[in-house]
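Possible regression after last week's pipeline update?

I re-ran a chain I had predicted before the update to compare outputs. Posting the input and the new output here so someone can diff against the archived version. Not blocking, just want to make sure nothing changed silently.
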Amino acid sequence: MALRLAGEEFSVVRGLDALGWPREITVNDAVPGLKVTQSGAGVGVQMVTGSLDLGANKLRSTNLLLKEESSNQWTIKSAADDAYRSLQLATVYLRTSLAAVGDGIPILADDVDNYSLLFKARDNGVGLVEVARLQGQAEPRFKFTLPAQLYTKTDTGNPAGVEGDLYVNLFDNGLYLFADGAWRTVVSW
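New output (post-update):
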């Protein structure tokens, strides 16, 4: 049976079901094989059961492209596939890791005065509690809201240092700061 579609001399329709609905449409040019224009308030296409298989591993909307890059990576890009786009969610649950691919990638709080990012961890028997806060204010800062544990060394001698490094040496009994190219004793006991 031949079915005429826009832009096609003919398209082959195979495997009609008992009600005459097509099971497969093969189109031979760049014009869409199936175009649905919904002029009413209803849903244009509805998948009641089953899955939608994407042969080219991508889903394109007017402005975005959801694309399978590999067997374990999806990207959201511009429709032209030339720039990455944003994804906004209420909560993201990670199963393994959060990875930044590139140098100097920021973690951003909303660009509003006094907004902050909270870092929370589980307190046994209590649940999630705030342990630190990245605070936007006149002088932005990273605040520890519970006791913080610094890098601790248990043998004598200082590690290699970078300006601003801070550590505790339990062997030499001191808190040390690397400033002006050398380790300085902040306090000793």
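Follow-up from reviewer: compared with the archived run. The first strand starts at residue 2 and ends at 3. Marking as no regression found.
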